[in-house]
Amino acid sequence: MLIRAFVTSTLSSEIQVVACNRSPEKLAQLQTRYPHLQVCATAEETVSASDVVFLCVKPGDAPDVINRVLPYLRDDHTFISINSAILLEEMEAILPCRVHKVIPSITQVALAGVSLVMHGSRTTHRERHDLESLLGAISKPTVVEEADLRVCSDLSSCGPAFLATLLQEFAMAAVRQGGIPRDLADTLVKDMTSGLGKLLTEEGFEFGDVIRRVAVPGGITAEGIKVLQPSMSGIFDQLLVTTRSKAHSHGKKVAEAAVKVEISEFED
Q1: Any stretches that span the bilayer, and where are they (predicted)?
Q2: Domain 2-144 belongs to what topology?
C-alpha cells in the first residue's frame, strides 16, 4: 500500500523506494508492477540502503525484526513503525536514531485520507516537518497523541472497512428489496459516497448540514433515519470497545515476544 502510494505520488521522481518482503514471490510481483522499485533480499540490506525506514510487520514479529536490523541502523536514520502496539519510548530505548510512528490507511492508495503521525522525543521541529512533508504527498498527515492512537486509528485506518461493510449491506438491501442489478446498486452507492465525501471535505458541509438538507421533516429520508437510529444506538461504542480490547491483546503479545528475544540473546 505504501509502496504503491509513494511510487505514484508527486515525489516519485525525487525518492528511491527500497523494499523487502519475507515472501520472494510477493517481492517479485512488486518489482514487476513497479520497475523502478529497488528490492533487497533481507531487512538488514534494506535498512543499509535506506535513509528513512518503515517497519511494516505484524505486532508479534516486530521485536525480532528490530533486533535483527539494529546493528545496521545509523544515528541519522529515520525509523518509522506503522505498528500501533509498539510504544515510542520502547523504540527509543533500543534504537540509536530518531523514531516516529505512522498509522497509514488504505485510502493512501488513492493518495487521499489521513495518516496518523506521532513523533519521538529526540526529533527536531525540522525533522518532524520533513516527515510530514513526505507523508503529505500521499495523505493528510495528522499529528495525534500516542494515548489517543487507538480510537483515532479506528476512525482513519479501520474506518474504511467499517464503512465499506455498511455501504455493501446498503447496496445489497437495494438488490433484495428493489430487484435492481448488483452492479447498478454498487455503482450508485460508490458514486453517492464519493459525492458525500466532497461535500464534507471540499464544500465545508458538516454531518448535521447534510442530514438537515436531505432529511426534510415528514419526508421519506426522515422516515428512513427513524429506522436507522434505534439500530445504530450504541453499535459504534461497542465496536470501539471491541477494537480496544483486541489492541490490548496485541500489546501483550508484543511484550511477550520482546522478552523472548532478549532471553534468547542472553542465552547465546
Answers
A1: none
A2: Rossmann fold (3.40.50)
